[in-house]
Amino acid sequence: MMLVMTRALLRARVQLVVASAGRDPCLQAADRRRQSVISDLLKTDYRRQRQLVEATIVSESLKINDSSSADCKGTAMEPAKSQSEQEEASSSS
What we know:
The chain is mostly helical. Helices cover 82% and strands 0% of the residues.
């Protein structure tokens, strides 16, 4: 949907540029303002698309990490010992 909106905005911008040729200065200024708004919308749309792609990549990598940790559930992992526990174990040996 965003890609369709982006194409429509680009088409509108091109039409404004073509239509503004040979007009009076007031209309040209209004067209420039419209073009700047369209440009800002395109930049925002692109930024959102990029953030969506990055979020999708992160989400996929988390799914991969979760599935690989699920494969390791059968192996028992010993919890990390605190400093005092390590000292007690070394002194008792």
